[in-house]
Design brief:
alpha/beta, 2 domains, 6-stranded parallel beta sheet, 13% strand, 10 helices, globular, Rossmann fold, Arc Repressor Mutant, subunit A
């Protein structure tokens, strides 16, 4: 982090895309240093050499030498503090859910507008999870569970389902607390309970769990 701003490395094998992203990121108020890498191995070497210590990596999936999936796995094992947002044109639901299982903090389509990118970065850097809206719809359509909302076998309370809906609508813990007129501590307690009941490893997994099991309205 530089002067209270997030340092970001754009990792993509298309040079023009990297340059364009870095130029765009430089306009964001919350972004400090930006760097770029052509593939995962180059990214990891930069981090090891201390050329830049990123708070966040914007990561493509399909790259030569070391792709996004391998890179995600390596970063989460060796640099768990670095946040990862996948930037891709891939809308494959299975791939998205697999990457969420690997621990990515966000998944954004490359055709998203700059405002959504900036919003995604802010959410992820607040320890939240961000998923492109169009992808939540795709996951929902691909679900195989019952069509009922709030099915009883998961044993969620009415308040937990209400909070789950807001989480899937990309509300942060603070925003949930304000909206429901509860304390931030209470909101966080409900979130922990949801993770426990759904057996999800993180908020990303919880979102996918909720959408797949049609516990929320998309």
């Amino acid at each position: 982090m530089t002067n209270g701003k997030f340092d970001i490395i754009v990792t993509d094998d298309h040079r023009l895309f990297r340059k364009g992203m870095c130029a765009l990121l430089s306009e964001f108020d919350d972004v400090g240093l930006t760097g770029e890498a052509g593939h995962g191995e180059e990214l990891i070497q930069q981090i090891k050499l201390g050329e830049i210590s990123p708070d966040l990596v914007l990561l493509d999936i399909n790259m030569p030498v070391m792709d996004g999936v391998e890179t995600t796995r390596y970063l989460k094992a060796h640099y768990p503090g670095i946040r990862i947002i996948i930037l891709s044109m891939e809308e494959d639901v299975q791939l998205v859910t697999h990457l969420i299982g690997e621990g990515v903090d966000g998944y954004l389509l490359k055709n998203s507008d700059p405002d959504e990118l900036e919003h995604a970065i802010r959410m992820v850097m607040r320890n939240e999870f961000y998923l492109s809206t169009s992808l939540t719809g795709a996951i929902f359509r691909g679900g195989t569970a019952t069509d009922k909302v709030g099915v009883p076998e998961f044993d969620f309370t009415e308040r937990e389902l209400e909070i789950l809906q807001l989480i899937c609508e990309q509300f942060t813990a603070t925003e949930i607390a304000e909206k429901l007129l509860i304390s931030a501590r209470t909101a966080e307690g409900h979130r922990r309970k949801l993770l426990e009941k759904s057996k999800s490893k993180n908020m990303a997994g919880l979102v996918v769990f909720a959408i797949k099991n049609k516990l929320v309205v998309i």
